[in-house]
Predict the structure.
Amino acid sequence: MNLVLIIFQGCLVVYLLALLWFLLGLLRPDPPRTHDQPPVSVIVAARNGDLHLSRLLACLMDQDYPEDKLEIVIVNDGLSEVSKASLDEATSRDQRIKVVDSASGDQRLTHKKRALDAGIRHSRGEVLLFTDVDCQMEPAWVRSMTSYFTPGTDYVVGWSQVAAGLSGVDDVELTGPTAPFKVFERLDFAMLMLAARGATMMGTPWASSGQNQAYRRSVYERAGGFQKLAHRLQGDDSLFLQVARRRAKARITYATDPDARIVTDSAESLVQLIYQRIRWSGDAVAMWRFNPVFFPIPVATFGVNALIIVLVLAALADSTTVLPVLIPGILLKALVEATFLLVGSTKLSLGGLRQHFPLWFLMQIPYVTLVGLASFWGNRLPWRRPVSGKRKTGQE
C-alpha cells in the first residue's frame, strides 16, 4: 500500500505542475498579429452531414474575407444525396465553393486523413484552415485566424467550445436525465481547450483540434503530409501538430481573439461522448513517439484519477494509512483545478461554467479512469461512431 501511495503522490505532483504551467500560459499577453490577408483555403472533410452541412456552408459563405482570396473546399467523404443536393445548390450561388472526392487523396492514408489530403491537393491557398461539418463560426473567423500568420508563425491553434450552456442561461435545455452529462461535456472540453491554449502560449504546444486549426501549405509539404500518421485512426490535429513541430520546424501560436472561436455541437449521448474521447485518448497514448517530454502528463492525469478510486476502496480496509495522504491530495487537486478554471473562464468570459465545477470534479475521476483504460484500444475502434436512432452527424 505504501508503494501505491507513493505512486499517487508522484502522479499528483506531475499533474499539478502541468496545470500550473498551463495556468502561466493563460496569463501571458496575446501573440502578435498582422493585417496581411494571404490566399486561404478552408477545408472540410464531410461525412453524414445532413443536419449540419447547410448551416456550415451559410457560415462560410458569410465570411468577411476578400472573396478573391478565399476558397471553400468541401471533401465528399460519403455524403448522402440530401447533402450532395445542398452542396450543388451552394456551388451554384457561390463560386468560392469547390467540391472534391475523398478518393482522390493519398491512397496510403485512411479515414479523415485521406479526405483532408484530397482537399489539400485540390486547394490553392497559402494558408490551410480546417473545421468540421458540425461547427459554426462568426463572419470574422477566417480573417481573425489568418491575422496570426505573422512572418514568424507557421501554425495557428484555435479555440473551440461545445454549443449552448456556456453562458449559463439555457436552463431549459439543461434539464432532464442527460443534463449532467451535457454540462460535464462542455466543461471538460473547455478544460482541455484551456490546457491547450496555456501550453501553446508557453511555447510548448501539445494539442490542437481539427475543428479549428490552420497552417501554411509549406508546413504540410515539409512534414511529408500525414504519412507519419498513416496507421493512426485519427492524427490530423494533435499528432500532426507534433510532426509539424519536429519535421517541419513549424513555429506555432494560439489565436486568442474571440472572433477566432468556433462552436461545435454536443454529443448526442454519453456513449457517443465516451466513444469520441477514447479515440482522442488513443492519440495521447501514442504521444510518447512524437513528444516524449509531454507524455508523462497524460500518464499522470490518468494515474491520479485511477488511484483515487483505488485508494478510496483501500481506505475501507486501512483508513489510518490511506486517508492522511488521500484527503489532502484530493483537496489540493480540487484547489488547483478550480483556480485554473477560474482564471481561464475569466480570461475567456466563460463565467457560466464555474458553477458546474463540483459536478465536473466528481464525474471526471471515473470518466478519466474509464477512458484511459479504453484508450489502448482507441486506434482499433471503427471510424464510424455510433449514432442514436436515424440521426446522422458530421465528420469529426
Summary: The chain has 13 helices and ten strands. The chain has two domains: 2-24+294-380, 31-290. Residues 165-173, 383-396 have pLDDT under 50 and may be disordered. The domain at 31-290 is CATH 3.90.550.10 (Spore Coat Polysaccharide Biosynthesis Protein SpsA; Chain A).
